[in-house]
Amino acid sequence: MSDAVETSVDSSAMLSAEDFAQLAVDFIINGKTLGELKGLSSEDMEVVYNVAYSTYAGENYEQAHKIFKFLCYFDHLEKKYWLGLGASRQMLKLYEQAIEAYTYAMLLDSNDPQPPLLAADCHIALGNRDAAISGLTAALEWSGDRSEYQSIRERATALLEVLNASASAAESEA
């Protein structure tokens, strides 16, 4: 890769067609992340993640949101970055955007029941009952009988019961 990529922040630097083609091949075909292409190591990303996590834990959701966006931009293949972005957006009441982040996390690991459960929380906040039920059902299915997902299974079951009870109550009143 040429120095033009490294200095692309400088407006006078341009990628040659050959450099651009190699960049595209590395990114698309070879499955590299933008962080890898820019020389960010996994250790660098982990340090930034720790800052994002601490910022979120400190309830500075706006700043955590910015840091998690950075992480997702430079490594779109790391599920925990998308979960952090979703959680930050959820705390900022950006529910539609949180659902998008959780959906991306689901695409990265369709065996993890946490993202559909978290997306269901957002759907509940938006009043999207059917979508919430779909997410809770997926969380239950994906958690299976695995003991590590017992708390997710219990929470999804409890939320489904509440949604079903509220629907039954609404039907009785109608």
Overview of the molecule:
There is one protein chain. This protein is an all-alpha fold and 174 residues long. It has two domains: 16-94, Serine Threonine Protein Phosphatase 5, Tetratricopeptide repeat (Alpha Horseshoe); 110-174, Serine Threonine Protein Phosphatase 5, Tetratricopeptide repeat (Alpha Horseshoe), CATH 1.25.40.10. 75% of the residues lie in helices and 0% in strands. The protein contains ten helices and no strands. The protein has helices spanning 3-6, 17-29, 34-37, 42-57, 61-74, 79-91, 95-108, 114-126, 129-143, 150-173. The longest helix is centred in the C-terminal third of the chain and has 24 residues, at 150-173.
Question: What is the structure about, briefly put?
Answer:
This protein has 174 residues and is mainly alpha-helical. It is built from ten helices and no strands.
